[in-house]
Design a protein that fits this description.
It is a single chain. This protein is of the alpha+beta class. Helix content is about 40%, strand content about 20%. The strands form four sheets. It has a five-stranded mixed β-sheet with strand order 11-10-9-12-13. The protein has a four-stranded antiparallel β-sheet with strand order 1-2-3-4, covered by helices on one side. The radius of gyration is 26 Å and the shape is flat.
């Protein structure tokens, strides 16, 4: 028999869900409104645990509903912060160890201007705040403008011509190098952020040319948010094993779909049984595979994604390799950059709870993807 939830925990959850009940004083002190209208109770975080000034805690020395409310609030804030990607503009702390003991240390000459160098007095590392664009000859605006133009449908040479109007003299090969470098960087970062997707997913395929040979690009997308979850390039349409496609989508979302909508191809049927089927009715997924052009059971939303892919592939006149970063770049552009009319001007990322802040979303993602992690900082401190 399943144990009943702690009554104080349930009441604490109700206080949190009511909203405007909790006030943050500082990083370790909070105030929670009394549910009887008798002012506030002070909740304090200590090394030995939480303290509260309410009678329940004072007389019983038990974790009260006010403490539970604060804990729920902190958990919620942590989840929200983890899915809010904001521009990095703090120039007061070291990017390696987080210390505020930094000092200016000369100027680095760059093709597009001078950049201030800093040294951390704690870890002794040198750095600049040109995060993500260090040692690049051109400024972040030119680089991100190139990526925006390219994934909006322009060819490499047309991007090159457009950049010349902005005073940026580069070759089309340089533009391709930028795309390859930053798409790989963003991909590694973004695949760690799970979207909040619905229970209905759709999968379909579209043929593409790779070095002149016909291949098939399989894509998996969430129905409600239009979030592009996974992709796979395969040789054959109906017989290639597409289990990696379904597995990648499940790993990114952290769940299986309740319903998977595909056409009647045999490889989708086999992959579904291997990856999503279960003998437990309460965890059962349903595979809907009888697609019609008209009516409720159609794949029109996947066809819209296929049109995006087709437009980009047509401009490129085919892909050069199956390992090209262009496909992943298209997915990043679709999910995080381009607003969708069907989502009331939101991006699929915003619709799935991932918010990218700042006017230049390319730059925001690149900055966060380039920021040293906690593990990196600990390694740097160990080295010094």
């Amino acid at each position: 028999m399943q144990a009943l939830e702690n009554p104080r925990e349930m009441k604490g959850k109700q206080i949190f869900q009511a909203g405007e009940q909790i006030t943050r004083i500082n990083g370790f002190e909070y105030e929670v409104k009394s549910q009887r209208g008798n002012g506030f109770y002070r909740i304090t975080a200590t090394e030995s645990g939480w303290l509260c000034t309410c009678p329940d805690y004072a007389y019983r020395n038990a974790k009260c509903k006010h403490i539970f409310a604060v804990v729920f609030s902190l958990q919620f804030r942590k989840e929200v912060e983890a899915k809010r990607i904001e521009p990095i503009a703090d120039t007061s702390i070291c990017i390696f160890c987080g210390s505020s003991h930094i000092t200016k240390d000369g100027i680095r000459k760059n093709k597009y201007g001078d950049i201030q160098k800093f040294q951390c007095l704690e870890c002794k590392k040198y750095f600049t705040f040109n995060l993500g664009f260090e040692k690049m000859k051109h400024n972040p605006q030119a680089i991100t403008s190139a990526m925006q133009l390219y994934f909006s449908g322009e060819s490499l040479r047309n991007v090159q011509k457009s950049l010349r109007l902005l005073g940026c003299q580069v070759s089309h090969q340089t533009v391709h190098n930028w795309i390859s470098k930053y798409v790989e960087l963003m991909q590694t970062y973004l695949e760690k952020i799970a979207p909040n997707v619905s229970g209905v997913w759709r999968a379909d395929e579209i043929y593409v040319k790779v070095k002149g040979d016909q291949k098939y690009l399989f894509a998996l997308m969430d129905d409600e948010t239009r979030f592009w979850l996974a992709e796979q390039v395969a040789d054959k349409k109906g017989i290639s094993d597409v289990r990696p496609l379904l597995k990648e989508g499940r790993e990114l979302a952290g769940r299986k779909p309740n319903i998977l909508v595909t056409d009647g191809a045999n490889n989708f049927i086999k992959a579904f049984k291997r990856e999503y089927y279960t003998h437990f009715p309460q965890k059962m997924s349903v595979h809907m595979r009888h697609i019609h052009i008209k009516g409720d059971l159609n794949n029109n939303r996947m066809e819209r994604l296929n049109e995006e892919i087709r437009g980009r592939e047509k401009t490129m006149r085919g892909l050069k390799t199956t390992e090209t970063p262009i496909i992943e770049g298209m997915k990043i552009f679709h999910n995080f950059i381009r607003p969708h009319m069907a989502l009331d001007g939101k991006t699929p990322a915003e619709a799935s709870g991932i918010e990218v802040k700042g006017e230049n979303k390319w730059k925001t993602i690149i900055q966060n993807a380039s920021r040293p992690t906690k593990i990196d900082r600990e390694m740097n401190q160990t080295e010094t």
